[in-house]
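Something for you to look into today, if you have time. Could you write out one complete protein record for me, on any chain you like? Leave the record below and I will have a look.
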Amino acid sequence: MSARIVALVGSLRAGSTNRQLAEAAVGIAPEGVTVELFEGLAEVPFYNEDIDVESSLPEAAARLRAAVSDAAGLLLVVPEYNGTMPAVLKNAIDWLSRPYGSGAIKDKPVAVIGTAFGQYGGEWAQTEARKAAGVAGGVVVEDVKLAIPGSLTRFADTHPSEDAEVITGLSAVLASLAAAATAPAKA
């Protein structure tokens, strides 16, 4: 069975360590699993029910919803900004949660990972992302987590894909997410 996982990166910076972490996920996806980096979160307008109208839905929001609707699971790659997740990622979750009760994220397995400069690797931001994704209707995969501390120094001279400890942790997350994404639906 194959599974397509969509990765949403909460940093818009091209050289961000979280983007590099997502790139590593793309490169080590288990057999039968494709991890696809969603491009275009910067173009998604802030969620506003007034513009969430089927006849005139913003194109970037429609692309985001379609990408996640067609995916078997979702990988949120979360940096930590001021102790929480970045607005761009929260905004994506808000768009994916609508229409209420049947949004694109509903019943999708969601894994949350990330790296941050601090000593805890962005755990606060990841906790907030798990909470938001769960409230939005996603099924958060809780059995494996990956919070990598010291991102600026740890990845100053190396890409996360070249760090054996990161690859081991990332492989475990992807395997767990893939298993959740390919599990038979519960009746």
Summary: The longest helix spans residues 164-182.
